[in-house]
Amino acid sequence: MASPKFTSSQLAKAYKTACMAELQALKPGNVHAFADGHGMTIDDFIKSADVTAEIVARADMRVGERIFYAVEATKQAVGQNTNLGMLLLCVPIIDAASHVDSGRSLADCLKGTLAALNVEDARMVAKAVVRANPAGLGQVSQHDVHDEPHVTLLELMKAAQDRDRIARQYAHGFEDILQFGVKRYADAMLKWGNPAWSATALYLAFLTRYPDTHVRRKYGEAAAQALMQEAAGIEQLHCTSDNPKLVQKKLIDWDALLKQRGINPGTSADLTVATILASYLL
Prior knowledge:
The chain folds into two domains: 8-174, no CATH class; 178-281, Orthogonal Bundle (Triphosphoribosyl-dephospho-CoA protein). It is mostly helical. It is globular and about 50 Å long. Helix content is 67%, strand content 0%. Helix 9 (175-192) crosses helix 10 (195-209), helix 10 (195-209) runs antiparallel to helix 12 and helix 10 crosses helix 14. The longest helix is centred in the C-terminal third of the chain and has 20 residues, at 221-240.
């Protein structure tokens, strides 16, 4: 049997590097190196990455366990939810990467990871979601996370896919990340050779392409659609610029306006982190 391509320590380092890379990108409405926001600081996110890096890469834990214990470690370190969405995305990618070898790609291994998710994974993730208590969580009639799950984590995510873009990744093999995000990030890197500006381009691409479900949960469909429209013009300016530095003031001004309105496109930021991570591991 072929040897795995990545060790646990390499995967932990890749995760932490992806978290740091995303924080360096100017992501309007989100926390980043240029500005804090929404009662959170960039230090909160750095601490969160520090305390979760080894947990997410632990080969002796199931996917659900890693997510729960990483959420718990985050709560202990910073006292609030900074990373539930990115953990839900990054942990399956890391688990899949731990099985990559000369005969199996990341996408192939991810299919195996998702297929192997069981009821215990669902139970631990439900506990993690309740512990993190993300904004706009609410309650639903089917498979509510406040109830004891009796289905696998994959089935739980399939049931939530129409209202949550992160759940949709589980239901569709992480296609937004592997089929759209990775290429968009690679194209930006090819154009500028700058990881921070490329991550900004990726974030704006997600904002423009999909209604941010974190915003939709808090403020409704109309607000999520309006955000997409706002993002489209900003993305066009950023992506057509030979020097994105010239667009920086517009991005900072929009960032301030979004934060004044309480708009935090958290799902788009989570997809950005996971895409950067996947890009490192392909």
